[in-house]
Amino acid sequence: MKVELEADKCVASGQCVVAAMDVFDQDDDGIAVLLTEEVGDDRLDDVKEAIAVCPAAAIRLARP
Amino acid sequence: MRRIVVVGASAAGLAAAETLRREGHDGTITLIGDEPEPPYDRPPLSKQILAAEWQPDRLALRVPADLAALDLDLRLGVAATGLDLVARTVRLADGCEVPYDGLVIATGVRPRRLPGEGAHVLRTLDDALMLREQLKPGLRLVVVGAGFLGAEAAAVARRLGAQVTLLEPAAVPLAHAVGVEVGQMLARAHVDQGVELRCGVTVTEVTEDGVRLADGEVVEADEVLVAIGSLPNTEWLGGSGLAVGDGVVCDAYCEAAENVYAAGDVARWYNPLFGASMRIEHRTNAAEQGMAAARNLLAAPEARKPFAPVPYFWSDQYDMKVQAYGFLRGHDEVAVVEGDVAERRFVAVYRTGGRVGGALAVGMPPKAIRGWRQAVVTGAAWHETVRTDIPVVEA
Ligand SMILES: Cc1cc2nc3c(=O)[nH]c(=O)nc-3n(C[C@H](O)[C@H](O)[C@H](O)COP(=O)(O)OP(=O)(O)OC[C@H]3O[C@@H](n4cnc5c(N)ncnc54)[C@H](O)[C@@H]3O)c2cc1C
Ligand code: SF4
Description:
The complex is a heterodimer.
Chain A: E1 3-5, H1 15-19, E2 24-26, E3 32-34, H2 44-53, E4 59-61
Antiparallel strand pairs in A: 1-4, 2-3
Chain B: E1 3-7, H1 11-22, E2 28-33, H2 64-68, E3 73-76, E4 80-84, E5 89-92, E6 97-99, E7 102-105, E8 109-111, H3 125-134, E9 140-144, H4 148-159, E10 163-168, H5 175-178, H6 180-192, E11 196-199, E12 203-207, E13 210-213, E14 218-220, E15 223-226, E16 230-232, E17 248-249, E18 255-257, E19 260-262, E20 267-271, E21 276-278, H7 283-298, E22 312-317, E23 320-326, E24 333-340, E25 345-352, E26 355-362, H8 366-377, H9 382-385
Parallel strand pairs in B: 1-2, 1-7, 2-3, 7-19, 9-10, 9-15, 10-11, 17-20
Antiparallel strand pairs in B: 4-5, 5-6, 8-16, 12-13, 13-14, 18-19, 20-21, 22-23, 23-26, 24-25, 25-26
Helix pairs in contact in B: 1-7
The structure holds flavin-adenine dinucleotide and iron/sulfur cluster.
């Protein structure tokens, strides 16, 4: 599934990195960046966790 | 457990509802909220919404399709007015009685007010839109309370050209929360931007032309914003038998009574990581606690997990991003371990008893703080961890 990030909503909390380090990183200002846009089913749980803990509702899974 | 009721349709309540579905609950979820809007986010209210950078539609916590996918019995614009723990029902303002097998209380807090009429508060979308309407160059705005909320609003108002007076009862704003040095730095940032900051003044009431101070002086204003803290929304639980005392009193599992949990700003729970009962008004905590409460509600008794988070908080003021991990209140000592407070680029760590209780950073890259979060998680001993000459290595 495709992960979408609205970077201008991001508040640099880093919660997504804690939830899924292989999918999210932060730039020097703390703003989240996607390491990959496409995640396999095995990574879905962690990405959903990241979506749930993101305080800015900045992450979504694209609907197929 | 077939019927779950969640009262409070904001960050904590939504997180609970989503988690129930993710954990496989396929019974009903009734989500009750007294605001008419679908769940929306509050931190941007004192930032992007007040600054008119965002339109309200950006606040929605979920797009309609994601909300619909949760298959909720969503009751918006109706308040819960009572709880019967024996009959296991929640009473609503429209006369409905909603039965439950499991209940999550997530009713948040509301602003404290001052005697007198006409002052703004800042908690809901309506509050923010009403204040934003008034903010224009030359407006004389008095902000009562220089906590994070008041400070953020003051910063936005100043940027929009208002004349801002910030009144604060303490000698140094936020000193009890972040320490004197950091509090002074934040205060200076406002003064540098032209905010008139008056500390050590007590406001007794809102008057027609401003606010009155304890010594009788009237500080004149066109608009007044009162930002002096908040009160948990627990009145609807009166007479239910639930323990309430500055929040719904919960154990380490966020449980308040059998199959009744609380989460978010309204919950006072025992955080085993700090060995203390706490109630936290942070956005990330609302989501995390909503998730934890939902998981524990569904779990078998032996599979439940204590909720032991490291609290996280951020605040945006002017060009400063403040980030804090841990529990800073009641700290015994503060040490600046990196950067320089005067330059507004630093990491400060907080000692509580013998351990690292928290850390606060301004203007630092995330890696500089993550290691300190880890130190709080492990309850690292202060004297072994904090040496101002040696940067802590990331865990
Ligand atoms: C302006 C502002 C700026 C903020 N900025 C930050 C920030 O920068 N960083 C940060 O970490 N935190 C910030 N916060 C705090 C953060 O927004 C809160 O911690 C979070 O919203 C708490 O979520 P909650 O779901 O527990 O409570 P709430 O968001 O208060 O939601 C509770 C909901 O329940 C409803 N309700 C109350 N009583 C009843 C009832 N009887 N029946 C039905 N519904 C009821 C309320 O109307 C409300 O919609 C800010 C808060 C505000 C107000
Ligand atoms: S969790 Fe959300 S707000 Fe925090 S860094 Fe990630 S995307 Fe940004």
